[in-house]
Design a protein that fits this description.
With about 375 residues, the protein is mostly helical. The chain is built from 17 helices and no strands. α6 packs antiparallel against α7, α8 packs antiparallel against α9 and α14 packs parallel to α16. The longest helix has about 35 residues. The protein starts with a helix and ends with a helix.
Length: about 375
């Protein structure tokens, strides 16, 4: 069982204060949601709502909104996640409960980061810092994770590493293996993204691939250990495009075929064009040109303006590589030009994010 759940269950067993007991139960339900146990998590919150219906408690209400936000986020309902966490932030601000204000602001920053809305992320991260208490590990671990991911995303891994370490320290201080799981996955995912970007745009993949491979294996094994089933197919997808970048095409394609649909149903549908284009690349290199052409056509139909710029750049760049093998000169140039255009936009967004984080760190 999760160390976090063991700690929460032990605290719930001995707690006699009604308010603190309710908070612990809400936190437990939210943590189960973060692990992917959505039905059990919702049942716990429904029971808690009945217990506090006649005599509400502000601390418990805030924790319940945070828990609802977590469940919504991990079950791929971003608007509900934002609404609940925004409500938690507003309530904790109104009654000046600083640690929960910091926690809800940090998670609102996380939601904004997930949408590449870096200006909003910076705003909420600043608010989280304004109320931070370094002894309140749930908020501190999320704040540190955001600094780590932002710096890593901006290709400053050396600067990100101390924040990854701080995040892990805060998570381990309360036995929060859910945060450790997220930390493992996010670090591996960013390394995998940099690996495929290098593969598409001509950089040395050896700068990124070894850490992507070992990191994704570690993330997979850790989640099996702590029984974290949230978005469990995602790690196999990052392994797939790490393998394709390292020219292990058969293994990559096998993982895509096994896990693509689950991954898309668990929140990665917006990246399907990226994955299908990479599958086409694998098929080309395995000599299955007819199926490669079919997948390329599917990827072209999936590419749209709603995609993250870096994902669209990679999808377009992979298609240019596919059409190079298929010897279609017109489409090679078309998709290469489109990919380079999006990649330049992405590079500007990296610098913008880095400027936001640098400003926060220097205040």
């Amino acid at each position: 069982m999760s160390l976090k759940l063991i700690r929460l269950d032990a605290a719930i067993k001995i707690e006699t204060n009604r308010s603190r007991l309710g908070c612990l139960k809400a936190e437990r339900a939210g943590f189960l949601g973060r692990q992917g146990h959505f039905d059990t998590a919702r049942q716990g919150l429904e029971q808690l709502q009945r217990e506090f219906a006649a005599h509400p408690d502000m601390h418990v209400s805030i924790w319940m909104h945070i828990a609802e936000g977590w469940i919504a986020h991990y079950s791929d309902n971003p608007s509900a996640a934002h609404n609940h966490l925004q409500r938690a932030y507003a309530l904790s601000t109104a009654v000046n409960i600083k640690n929960l204000r910091s926690l809800s602001a940090a998670w609102l920053a996380h939601l904004a980061y997930s949408k590449n809305d870096f200006a909003v992320m910076g705003k909420y991260l600043r608010l989280a810092l304004d109320s931070q208490d370094i002894s309140f590990h749930p908020a501190e671990s999320r704040i540190c994770m955001l600094f780590a991911m932002s710096l890593h995303y901006a290709r400053r891994l050396d600067s990100a590493r101390p924040w990854y370490i701080k995040c892990r320290e805060h998570a381990l201080a309360e036995g929060d293996d859910g945060t450790v799981s997220a930390l493992n996955f996010n670090m591996a995912g960013l390394q995998a993204n940099h690996t495929i970007q290098a593969s598409v745009f001509g950089e040395d993949i050896n700068k990124y691939a070894p850490l992507a491979a070992t990191g994704s294996a570690a993330a997979e094994n850790f989640d099996l250990l702590v029984k974290n089933f949230s978005r469990k197919s995602w790690v196999y997808i990052i392994q797939a495009y790490t393998l394709s970048s390292c020219e292990n095409f058969k293994a990559a394609l096998d993982l895509y075929n096994l896990h693509l649909e689950d991954a898309c149903s668990q929140g990665l549908e917006h990246q399907r064009a990226f994955f299908v284009a990479d599958m086409s690349w694998c098929l080309c290199n395995l000599g299955d040109f007819n199926l490669a052409q079919k997948n390329a056509n599917e990827a072209i139909g999936l590419i749209n303006e709603e995609m993250y710029t870096e994902d669209r750049a990679v999808a377009l760049g992979r298609l240019a590589q596919v059409f190079n093998i298929l010897k279609n000169k017109i489409l090679i140039e078309k998709y290469k030009t489109l990919a380079e255009k999006d990649w330049k936009i992405h590079e500007k967004s990296i610098e913008y994010l880095y400027s936001i984080i640098s400003k926060l760190l220097n205040q």
